[in-house]
Amino acid sequence: MTKGWRPGKRAAIIGAGPGGASAALAMLQQGYDVRLYERNADPKPLGGGVLLSVPVLAILRQYDIDITNFGSFTKTQFRNNRGKVRVRLPFNENVEKAMGIKGWHYGVLRSNAFGKMLNALPDGVLISDHKLDKYEEQNGEIQISFENGAKVTADILIGADGIRSVVSRQTFGDPGIFHVGLRAWLGWCDDPGGIEKELAIIHHSRNVQASYFPMLHDGKPGFEWWIVERSAEGSAVPVDVEGHIRHLLADFPSPMSRFPDHTDFETQLFRWEIYNRPTLKTWTKGRVACVGDAVHPVSPYAAYGMGMAIEDGYFLARSLGGRDLTDLAGVTEAFRRYEAERVDYVNHHVEFARELGKRFHHASAPMAWLRDFIFDHTGFLQRQVEKDYLASAEKMSLQLMELHRNPRATAVNQ
Ligand SMILES: Cc1cc2nc3c(=O)[nH]c(=O)nc-3n(C[C@H](O)[C@H](O)[C@H](O)COP(=O)(O)OP(=O)(O)OC[C@H]3O[C@@H](n4cnc5c(N)ncnc54)[C@H](O)[C@@H]3O)c2cc1C
């Protein structure tokens, strides 16, 4: 599996999700010998559509992935369940100019985006049917053992193995995973017609969210639609899922109730019980670094779980920058830089998303009334989303100069 690997260049990545695939592509671009180990025979993303933001698209473009007709351009709004607009997500013109990509959000079918990432990997990098058992760091190397009995020696180990990460657990201890009291139903369908194409709407009633965005799937227009509702860990799944969903959607304006008519409930609807973990301040130790859900699972309120995992992989490889991986001091310095660039930024987004989830679904009746009054009649939510969601992402985008397609505009505008 690792024949011809050069000491000092050996990077083993565990988990071929978006984070692992991104880390693999970025590490290859930095000149490393990479193997991406996946427990499943055929890695597949969960869920239907996903919103990806401009910096994430710019990273995929940097991996030589063609982002033409990749996703559906969309403007995102928050509304109440009577249709009143509470937030219009603005675009930053400097980011648009610098990246050469219009707007901020694009709707894509996950399997399309993820498939393109896997296709960009050279043959031999992805090794399926390899479930990590444990690792051991000794004599300046990492010995990695898989449940099928295979063993590999690498210079560094990257844990991209998702929310129940074996790497993260062995490195940082029990993650203390908890259910956040929410369940999401994610559906997608072909374009039912008659719906404005460039608009994503996140609606809230007193304690349910029902939303949609336009997306492209295999180049064809469609929509992702979803519902977030309260649920306790282990609570029963409704026997009549379709009836339950139609009942919830009846409380929301058109076109929400039209989507189920065009969705195959067997293959195009996913239930997502939402788990989280207490914030972790360190994502690296010795020769091990983690990316994505392995260190920061995120609720759907961020609309950024896949995006943050892709960004992590890119930032980690950028920090290593081709340096000799046998040099532990150099690796440690690079890992510190990765953490400095990512940990606070990501944790802020994860915590903000968790807080929004609580506020929208777990407020007492009087608090929910007050919340809705403030959100409907003041610019409070608009200001908060701009400050807590967009500002730092825009700043990061402007700092990623190597991804810019129009450096002159950036320099002028910074
Ligand atoms: C049903 C569902 C729907 C979701 N929908 C959305 C959404 O609409 N928008 C959004 O932003 N986020 C969504 N998320 C969250 C998003 O999927 C994650 O944030 C994102 O996938 C994280 O990527 P990752 O690469 O870190 O981890 P993952 O995508 O979890 O990938 C981890 C990979 O590691 C592999 N693996 C695990 N353990 C081992 C092991 N021991 N050895 C080898 N391989 C291993 C797994 O098989 C998997 O391929 C959803 C999650 C779920 C479960």
Write the layout of secondary structure elements.
Elements lengths: L9 E5 L3 H12 L3 E5 L11 E5 H9 L9 E9 L4 E4 L4 H7 L5 E5 H10 L6 E2 L4 E7 L2 E6 L4 E4 L1 E4 L6 H7 L5 E13 L8 E6 L4 E9 L2 E11 L10 H9 L19 E8 L7 E2 L2 E3 L14 H16 L7 H34 L3 H13 L2 H20 L7 H7 L1
Helix pairs in contact: 1-7, 2-7, 3-11, 7-8, 8-10
The structure holds flavin-adenine dinucleotide.
The site of flavin-adenine dinucleotide (FAD) has 34 residues, from helix 1, strand 16 and helix 7.
Written description of the protein model:
By secondary structure, the protein is of the alpha/beta class. It has one domain (10-177, 277-413): FAD/NAD(P)-binding domain (3-Layer(bba) Sandwich). It has helices at 18-29, 54-62, 93-99, 110-119, 166-172, 241-249, 305-320, 328-361, 365-377, 380-399, 407-413; strands spanning 10-14, 33-37, 49-53, 72-80, 85-88, 105-109, 126-127, 132-138, 141-146, 151-154, 156-159, 178-190, 199-204, 209-217, 220-230, 269-276, 284-285, 288-290. The strands form 3 sheets. Strands 3, 4, 5, 6, 12, 13, 14, 15 and 16 form a 9-stranded mixed β-sheet that branches. Strands 7-2-1-11-18-17 form a 6-stranded mixed β-sheet, sandwiched between helices. The longest helix has 34 residues, at 328-361. The N and C termini lie far apart (46 Å). The model is unreliable at 410-414 (pLDDT under 50). Flavin-adenine dinucleotide binds at residues 14-20, 37-40, 43, 46-47, 50, 131-132, 160-162, 166, 186, 270, 272, 292-294, 298, 300, 303-306, 309.
